[in-house]
Amino acid sequence: MSSNEEFIQKVLRSRKYRDLHLPAETIRDLIEQESQRFRDEKSMQESVRQKLHQLTALYLGDPDYDKALEELELMQDERELQDFANRMLSAHTSTRERLPYLTDFYNALFQRIGTPQSILDLACGLNPFALPKMGLDQNITYLAYDIHQPRVNLLNAFFRRAGFEAARAEQRDILVSPPTQKADTAFFFKEAHRMDQRRKGSNRILWDALPVTTLLVSLPKRDIGKTHDLSERMRHLVQDALQGRTWPVEEIIFEDEIVFCIRKGAG
Predict the structure, then answer these.
(1) Which residues in the chain come in under a pLDDT of 70?
(2) DSSP letter assigned to residue 19
(3) DSSP tag of 229
(4) Which of 185, 194, 196, 253 could form a disulfide with 116 if both were Cys (CB 3.0 to 4.6 A apart)?
């Protein structure tokens, strides 16, 4: 086993990351990127650990997925299921901020682009727990991608319990392995700025690769403390990713985020 593979296994087995069950390909990709910046192994590994922390920091406030799965399996009615979904959405700031206007949020999106029959939810986080509130048909093809396996397991159990037979979640690092499934729409909610921190220019590569007609990219309007306006910085990020592309872009502005509606055309 090479020193890089030994390092990957060490990280995956560490107390900090072992419960996340991260894909080895994610760390392998970070090693490849940081090896171009650092010649010595120690500095490279330190940088990989720092990048990985940035990538997974949002998981530090995650629900107890095993406990949540047990709870889900014992539910008897739809009211319990909706309360459960709301609690999951409340666990992360990015989804909690939308709860007061969740139905209006999706109504506004689908009024602009039409009602999709198929959706890719990229780096989905806890967003798929909003699926019952999106106003979509129960037969919607909804494919959610995330690197956190316990979260993926819970999402799949939730889809089954909620009756969305064509919905599924999959563990996938979308930067390393972009989805190849064609769809009407892709959600990429509050992740593009973090993706750019991981690898500069990665949004352009990912967005080019997606076989979708419309890409909905949301980005925060303000920092977590709500003291600094990030709108122009986020607009520049999208403009940089689309440089040289002729895809029409519209903005849909909400209280805490801007959704960039990017029409790629035929996927």
Answers:
(1) 1, 58-61, 266-267
(2) G
(3) B
(4) 185
